[in-house]
Amino acid sequence: MSGESFNWHEFLGRWQEEWIPREDEDGGQSVVPLGRPGAGEAAIVAAEERLGRRLPPSYRKFLAVSDGWHVDETAGVYQLGGVEDIGWFQDPHGMTPLYQENLGDDPREEDVLLAGMWRRALQLETDSDMSHALLDPGDSDQNGEWALYAYRGWSGELPNRYPSFRAYMEAKYRGFQADRAGRPGFVNATTRVQDAHVDEGRLLALRGRYEEALPLLEEALSFGRPRSATLLNQLRHLLAPHSAQGYGDLVADARCLPEILPLEAMAPARGEWRLGGDDHWLRMMTARGADRGTAEAVLSAMRDGTHSYAPPGPWGRAVAEARESARWGATDAAWRVLRAALALWEAPGPLLIAPIGLLADPVLGPLITPERGREILATPRAGETGPAPEPAPDLDPPGLAWLTEPAANGQRFDGYRCVWVEGVDPARLPVLIGEEGAELSAPAHRRMMPWRAPNPHEREGVELWEDRAVVSVGRTAEAWAFAFDGNSHRRLDERFLSPAPAASSSGRAVVVWRDPGRSSPRQHPPAFHLSVAEQGEELYAFTVRGTEIQRSGAIPEALDPARLFRPEDSEPDCELGLLEAMHTELGLSLPRFALTQGRLSTFTTRSWTRAPRAGEGFAYAVFVRRRP
Predict the structure, then answer these.
(1) CA distance 57 to 141
(2) DSSP conformation class of 306
(3) DSSP H or E segment with residue 152
(4) Spacing of C-alpha 589 from chain mean position
(5) Which of 276, 458, 484, 566 has a 20 to 30 A CA-CA distance from 234?
(6) What is the pLDDT of residue 1?
(7) Taking every pair of C-alpha atoms in the chain, what is the biggest distance, in angstroms?
(8) Burial tier of 586 (Cβ tally within 10 Å: 0-12, 13-18, 19+)
(9) How many beta carbons lie within 10 A of that of residue 110, not counting itself?
(10) C-alpha 470 chain-centroid distance
(11) Cα–Cα distance between 552 and 542 in angstroms, integer?
(12) What is residue 300's three-state secondary structure?
């Protein structure tokens, strides 16, 4: 960056004109000269001869206008010296060896520069709070600018790096503005320009031109302008839906409360709020203007998964329709409903520029990926017009083959089992195959499901031989209800009792189980089971263990295990062949996104194993880890 095009006279003059003391300073200091008369060229050259180096361009230009400056930080550097004050730092505190010993075998270039900076840097400050402003001639750019490192010795943090002296001064000016932004009457040309940027950014965001709004709001935020953070955080939240953003006192706006309070409750609901627990969070919300009873109710609903984002009007009706689809696993269909209705969203208050309440909904929130968040932001809304964005692609592949692929987190379903029932409302599955009194739970993520499935010895009235599963419930695109267990670590043994007949009381039912085997393939090889029943009677079934095949009934040729499980084929190829055949022959599928990243209701099934017969034994082992 070159200082040739930068007007130091105008910049420093504006800073001086707008300066007022901090609130913690003596109110009588209404007029304080921040700078001094500029140094002449001869004085600057003399300083360069004394130092043995030509000074970088932006710092030279600054000195010619003001021979020093009162930076006025609350903690840090207070005063920058002039040409007679500056000198080489020479690392008086021995920082170089501390930084060099942490470089490692393959250090980054920026770390090497920082480690060497302490001995070669030029010290600019003359008054500070154990802080330094250091220009490093060893860290320069193509324009001859030296990087400036601002180091607060009491902070324990690494120095902040600025690419030039000018960049450092611009940052200090923004800090001066932000430090006083909340003071009544602090209005000047700069605040008016930045407030106009906030208004423009808000309008651009509503028109779907969020990429143009972002730099305007980011700049206004750096000047501490009111409203900028609230607007900017909405854009950031939808660009990174799983990040945490704060919305300040917007909680106090009753119009925005249904959108904002659930968002604020997400962290404590997940157990991520450590400072003072729930009570501290509730007191913080009430201090911002929220009713405590309302905050308690929202936190409770967020914690148990029963919260529903329910805005009014046509947008609200679309949200309800989308939730009904998503709660049964049709997340792509749900997103298409939301996408079609985005233009109908109305801002409940002037500081809301997007339907961010979606992110707190336990069913709809997971649907908002970064790509879909960008689509929301790129869609004109709240009565504004503009071009519609390119639709984000669907996320669910057809069929079942995806079960053999790694998920987004790099993991895959290893052992899994599933029951499909044709033409049945998924809400009926607990009646068909659930344990006594089984009911659908609130939507839950699959990583929480193992905690919901206690072992038999932990449940009263459950026999040790029983294998009850906690299953996720939904509906496929082909109108099959499904109950899926993706956390199955039980063996598919000879006492397996297919739930297909019980599930097929009013139609066709299909059961599949993949047992990945155990560490000893000879004793426990991988196993597959498929059974199909109709009107309470099993039509056909087969179980494959290693090279052994057990079969019954008239199995269709497309599902013939002898064709699908050939000895010369690998186990993954056999699994893939079976899943593809099940999709082609039976029309079966499963929604990948809902089962891996979404939220589905669950219930506990009856046992997948029968009771031991007379003379038939079984073993059940429980391992308990005890602390030493």
Answers:
(1) 11
(2) -
(3) strand 146-152
(4) 28
(5) 276
(6) 44
(7) 108
(8) buried
(9) 11
(10) 27
(11) 6
(12) helix
- Phi, psi at 545, each rounded to 5°: -125, 105
Contacts of 65 (CB under 8 A, 6+ apart): 8, 9, 12, 35, 38
Tens digits of residue pLDDT in 248-300: 878 888 899 889 999 999 989 888 766 678 888 999 999 988 899 999 999 99
Residue corresponding to tokens 């749900």: 334
With H, G, I as helix, E, B as strand and everything else as coil, classify residue 573.
Answer: helix
* Residue environment code for 465-486, b if the CB has 16+ CB neighbours within 10 A, otherwise e: bbbbbbbbbbbbeeebbbbbbb
In this structure, the dihedral spanned by the alpha carbons of residues 183, 188, 193 and 199, taken in order and rounded to 10 degrees, is 40
Number of continuous H segments (helices) and E segments (strands) in the chain: 20, 17
Classified as helix, coil or strand, 108 is coil
Backbone torsion region of residue 360, taken as left when φ is above 0, otherwise alpha when ψ lies between -120 and 50, otherwise beta: alpha
- Amino acid identity of 402? W
In single-letter form, the type of residue at position 291 comes to D
Determine the residue type at 289.
G
The whole-angstrom separation of Cα 32 and Cα 102 is 44
Structure token digits, residue 323: 């939730």
Torsion of CA 289, 291, 295, 298, to 10 degrees: -120
Question: Which amino acid, one-letter code, is at 536?
Answer: G
Of the chain, the percentage scoring pLDDT greater than 90 comes to 74
| The two structure tokens encoding residue 150 | 């601002």
> Sorting pLDDT into bands at 50, 70 and 90, what band is 2?
very low
Contact 179, 224 (CB under 8 A): yes
Whether residue 595 contacts residue 486, with contact meaning beta carbons closer than 8 Å, is answered with: yes
- The pair of structure tokens assigned to 178 is 């932000």
Length of the chain: 628
- Residue 271 CA to residue 226 CA, distance in Å, equals 31
Retrieve residue 212's tokens. 């143009």
Contacting residues for 224 by C-beta, under 8 A, at least 6 apart: 174, 177, 178, 179, 180, 181, 182
Residues 6+ apart with CB under 8 A from 245: 233, 234, 236, 237, 263
CA distances to 123, 529, 556, 559 from 551, rounded to whole Å, are 84, 10, 12, 11
Cβ pair 398, 406 in contact under 8 A: no
Per-residue pLDDT tens for 387-439? 999 999 999 999 999 999 876 555 567 789 999 999 999 999 999 999 999 99
H or E, element range at 30: none
Closest listed residue to residue 394, CA positions, set 591, 576, 590: 591
Give the count of alpha carbons within 13 A of 36, CB side only: 13
Tokens 């000074």, located at residue:
55
What are the helix (H) ranges across 454-529? 500-503
**What string of H, E and C letters represents the secondary structure of 358-400?**
HHHCCCCHHHCCHHHHHHHHCCCCCCCCCCCCCCCCCCCCCCC
- Token pair in block for residue 130: 């154990």
- Residues paired with 162 in a beta bridge: 148
Please name every residue paired with 80 in a beta bridge, in sequence order, or none if there are none: 69, 125
**Cα angle for residues 169, 188, 193 (degrees, 5° grid):** 80
- Cα(289)–Cα(47) distance, rounded to whole angstroms? 58
Given a cut of 70, whether residue 247 has pLDDT beyond it is yes
| Angstrom distances, CA of residue 279 to CA of 231, 247, 292, 493 | 28, 19, 10, 50
